[in-house]
Amino acid sequence: MPLSEGSQAPDFALPGIDGRMYSLSQALERGPLLAVFIKTTCPTCDLTMPYLVRLREVYPRHGWDLWVVSQNFADSSRGYARRFGVSFPVMLDEPEEWAVSHLYDPPATPTLFLIGPDGRVEAVTWGFSKADLNEMGARIARHLGQPPQIVAENDDGNPDARPG
Question: Which of 100, 104, 136, 163 has the lowest tally of Cβ within 10 angstroms?
Fold first, then answer.
């Protein structure tokens, strides 16, 4: 069962595809973190990724973080990030161990965990949902003291929702 809203998010550190180490506790010093668990072979993740890129574009880079936690090896994760023009960190929770995935227990990919600066899970969603993506954006906007932006338009040619 995935971490539920209100639960304490387990601290973790993972290597990124850029060779840097990323630590949840350090990220939370800057503000909330949206951690998105994906697989590079997941069609629903493919559908979600452009909206995550847009989310990063509509809110400033300071005051919050967006991380993708890939459940694949480095080479496929790098190719995936290039394919979608990802400019935010992509971490490696490589197959066979999935140490962080076991802690967070995402029920599907993608699964999004919004973790507040206090380390508590504020929201969890899995699969693809435009409403959920917009809600995550609104929650981030509240943290930043900004008006919410629409990240996922209803009539943009993609379905409103899709299971993971």
Answer: 163
The structure tokens listed for 153 are: 């338009």
Query: Is the CB of residue 35 less than 8 Å from the CB of residue 115?
Result: yes
**Structural domain span for residue 124:** 25-151
**Residue whose structure tokens are 């400019």:** 87
Q: Is residue 119 part of a domain?
A: yes
What pLDDT score does 37 carry? 98
Tell me the pLDDT tens digit for each residue of 66-79: 999 999 999 999 99
**Mean pLDDT, residues 135-154 taken together:** 97
Task: Annotate 49-114 with DSSP letters as a single string.
Answer: HHHHHHHHHHS-SSS-EEEEEESS-HHHHHHHHHHHT--S-EEE--TTT-HHHHHH--SSSSEEEE
Q: Give the CATH number of the domain where residue 74 resides.
A: 3.40.30.10
pTM of structure: 0.97
